[in-house]
Amino acid sequence: MDHPNASSEILRELIAFDSDSEDELEQLFNARENDDQQANGRRRTGHRGSVPGHRIIQRNHNDGHSRLWNDYFKPDPVYHEGLFRRRFRMSRNLFLHIANAVVANDTYFTQRRNAVGVLGLSALQKITAALRILAYGSPADTLDEYIQIGESTAIASLRRFVKGVVTVFGERYLRASDQNDVHRLLAQNEERGFPGMLGSIDCMHWQWRNCPTAWQGMYTGHCRSPTIILEAVASRDLWIWHAFFGMPGSLNDINVLQRSPVFGALANGRAPEANYTINGHQYNMGYYLADGIYPRWSTFVKTIPCPQCPKRKHFAKMQEAARKDVERAFGVLQARFAITRGSARFWDVDTLDDIMTACIILHNMIVEENGGSDHIDFDGLTTPPTMSHTQTAEFRSFIQTHRQIRDSSTHSQLQDDLVEHLWARLGSSD
Fold first, then answer.
1. Of 82, 95, 371, nearest to 239 (Cα)?
2. From the CA atom positions of the chain, what is the Rg in Å?
3. E-assigned strands of 272-378?
4. Residues in Cβ contact with 157 at an 8 Å cutoff, skipping those fewer than 6 apart
5. Contact 262, 294 (CB under 8 A)
6. Rounded Cα–Cα distance for residues 330 and 328 (Å)
7. What is the per-residue pLDDT across 48-87, written as a single tens digit (0 to 9) for each?
8. CA dihedral sign of residues 334, 339, 345, 346
9. What is the pTM of this model?
């Protein structure tokens, strides 16, 4: 912005010169014009150059890398594997696997020299900074003393890291369940007394501290502060099979469900088959355990509020216990990555979406590493074939399936059958 007294300053400078100093006057105007052009160029490009009075911090990047290498990554590190798992939320081998894949995907993490030939930050420093922010939810400038990385570089590393994780590992660790997964989940949950169960579904709110003022009314709900909603489906081993993130916090679980693609494949006839029998009745669609706010659909099994008879009391107890799978998954996700438990300090929804998605992917990778999901052989998976026009379900079939999903009578029958089934199991165990 031009200074309001610029013309008067130029006038005073002109008066101070002798009238015969035409060359000096010409030099003065040329200098003024060059300064204005440079200022306009900086405004257009966003590069301001050196800021007068700004103190440059001379960080020792080599010292930060050496400290990090000696403490955690050399053959005989200072801190053992247990402390590495606590501070990085995963084993050293898994960390290095992720780091190598992210570096191969994005040249930003490749260590390079600057204009004067000095080595910059290493990939270990950038990725460690990103993971520490995810794991501890700490501000970016708290990493400077140990890793020797600036605040702006730490934030940039976090953004590039989560994008790299989503790009490289998203298809593998956020995939939909296939026929083998459905069979395994049905078998596992039948042992728990819930044949036909595919998991539990619920929503989690993530507080958005830096929500723009114009959006705060839309993102503020019962939490009394702006939040963003994550809808997830989790199994007993805490694997998150479905994640739908980004809905404003003013919505409830039913509003999120109306926008969620959780039943999209089922309605389009592309979902794996789930055939099972309960109490002599045959069913062909799996269901999720849900809390009381969800609708009475055939794909949901809810608890019974205020049960009176012993059968219903036992069913409510078993349903509420099994439904905690998704609550446990949310708790473990927030414990591993504290950034999802605290207040989000970024301004744009896209970055928050990448952060939440990357945390879920890393969570599933850790579950797999710890032996969850029965050691799924992901290497043998193939990409589902593209549905052609002849394979796509007709509109009438879509409407019929859509009605079956929302059938309240099937919901009541399924609930009654499960009440009898669980009561029979209790009697046989006695």
1. 371
2. 29
3. 276-278, 281-283, 287-289, 300-301
4. 108, 109, 126, 127, 129, 130, 149
5. no
6. 5
7. 555 677 777 888 889 999 999 999 999 999 999 999 999 9
8. negative
9. 0.81
